[in-house]
């Protein structure tokens, strides 16, 4: 078979042949990071505080998600560069895959190119798939991603259902490394000194009180993700909503974190989701131990999850046996 370069998909993509490609915005990719394509806008995925996700395709290769730093938000450029750098060094099946960076003409804006996961985040997926129960599988896979991050001394700092992407019923991936930090080698934690917005309703008390982040504070947030998962990401049971119900809606912004720290100190925790097995709620409570030194670690949690799953399988088998005897 002969190879005609001019007809090759990647050549057409490089030349930007309009009929062969999808229309709208054109971006130039840094050659060293994202090889042969020029990206063309296809559809907007989701807007967020500083980035817009756009789905691109050169009609021949894989679809990619592009997270774009909005040009008027110059103050976050450094943070965005850090996010790009962090994702570029992570190689794990349970973490969204980095594909490269791309700049608009004149380098006025910069974008992060990632693999595209058509199911989006856990939030939308769980809301619209209440009939399926992929939760047990999700738990294990999520744990594997977190153990990998921990092995590299990373603290994610924004672990929440909105930042977990769904590849399939049996595979989820951690995303959004905008707040991620590396714990210094001589320390057990990272102390944040820069001001900025924080997802406090997912935070451990030591993070709210002392801006101290460690694997244990990620474990706390992991417990909150479990809670979201077992509530099927129902907006009425959203962690922020439940915490604000307890704090009182009349409390104003600067004192919300103080009030939140107070209720946690007084041992208030998110209530058990409806129909949540007691063993799973117990797991959440182990993530939410006030004194972080006594909190569970990711490998403990993983072992316990495996035991719970094993028990469930055995109960199911026993039930089936009983049923056979009965009929
Ligand atoms: N790779 C991806 N594939 C599909 N959807 C994605 C992808 N990355 C992000 N999204 C969607 O965009 C939303 C926001 O992305 P995220 O990286 O969390 O941005 P932000 O930093 O603004 O929170 C996610 O909750 C998800 O719905
Ligand atoms: Mg996010």
From TrEMBL:
Domain annotation Protein kinase: ranges: 39-309
Cross-referenced Pfam families: PK_Tyr_Ser-Thr (PF07714)
Keywords tagged on the record: ATP-binding, Kinase, Membrane, Nucleotide-binding, Transferase, Tyrosine-protein kinase
Biological processes per GO annotation: cell development; cell surface receptor signaling pathway via JAK-STAT; cytokine-mediated signaling pathway; growth hormone receptor signaling pathway via JAK-STAT; intracellular signal transduction; neuron differentiation; regulation of developmental process
One GO term describing the cellular component: cytosol
Compartments, as annotated in UniProt: Endomembrane system
Alphabetical list of InterPro entries matching this protein: JAK, Kinase-like_dom_sf, Prot_kinase_dom, Ser-Thr/Tyr_kinase_cat_dom, Tyr_kinase_AS, Tyr_kinase_cat_dom
The keyword ATP-binding appears for this protein: yes
PROSITE patterns assigned: PROTEIN_KINASE_DOM, PROTEIN_KINASE_TYR
Domain of life assignment: Eukaryota
Molecular function via GO: ATP binding; growth hormone receptor binding; non-membrane spanning protein tyrosine kinase activity
Keyword Membrane recorded: yes
Gene3D superfamilies on file: Phosphorylase Kinase, domain 1, Transferase(Phosphotransferase) domain 1
PANTHER family, per the entry: TYROSINE-PROTEIN KINASE HOPSCOTCH, TYROSINE-PROTEIN KINASE JAK3
The protein, known as: Protein kinase domain-containing protein
Organism: Perca fluviatilis
């Amino acid at each position: 078979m002969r190879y005609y370069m001019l007809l090759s998909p990647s050549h057409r993509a490089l030349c930007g042949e309009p009929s062969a490609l999808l229309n709208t915005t054109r971006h130039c990719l840094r050659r060293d990071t994202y090889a042969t394509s020029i990206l063309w806008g296809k559809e907007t995925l989701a807007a967020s505080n500083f980035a817009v996700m756009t789905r691109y395709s050169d009609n021949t290769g894989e679809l990619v998600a592009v997270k774009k730093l909005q040009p008027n938000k110059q103050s976050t450029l450094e943070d965005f560069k850090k996010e790009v750098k962090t994702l570029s060094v992570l190689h794990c099946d349970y973490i969204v895959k980095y594909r490269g960076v791309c700049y608009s003409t004149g380098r006025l804006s910069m974008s992060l190119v990632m693999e595209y996961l058509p199911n989006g985040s856990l939030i939308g997926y769980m809301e619209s798939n209440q009939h399926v129960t992929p939760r047990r599988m999700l738990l294990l896979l999520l744990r594997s991603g977190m153990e990998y991050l921990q092995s590299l001394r990373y603290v994610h700092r924004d672990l929440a259902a909105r930042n977990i992407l769904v590849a399939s019923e049996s595979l989820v991936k951690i995303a959004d490394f905008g707040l991620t930090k590396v714990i210094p080698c001589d320390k057990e934690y990272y102390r944040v000194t820069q001001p900025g917005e924080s997802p406090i309703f997912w935070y451990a008390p030591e993070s709210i009180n002392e801006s101290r982040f460690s694997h244990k504070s990620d474990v706390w947030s992991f417990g909150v993700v479990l809670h979201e998962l077992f509530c099927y990401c129902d907006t009425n049971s959203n962690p922020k909503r439940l915490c604000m119900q307890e704090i009182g809606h009349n409390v104003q912004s600067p004192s919300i974190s103080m009030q939140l720290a107070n209720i946690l100190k007084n041992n208030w925790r998110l209530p058990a989701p409806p129909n949540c097995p007691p063993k799973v709620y117990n797991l959440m409570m182990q993530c939410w131990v006030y004194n972080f030194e006594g909190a569970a670690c990711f490998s403990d949690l993983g072992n316990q999850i495996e035991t719970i799953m094993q028990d469930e399988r055995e109960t199911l088998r026993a039930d089936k046996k009983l049923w056979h005897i009965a009929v």
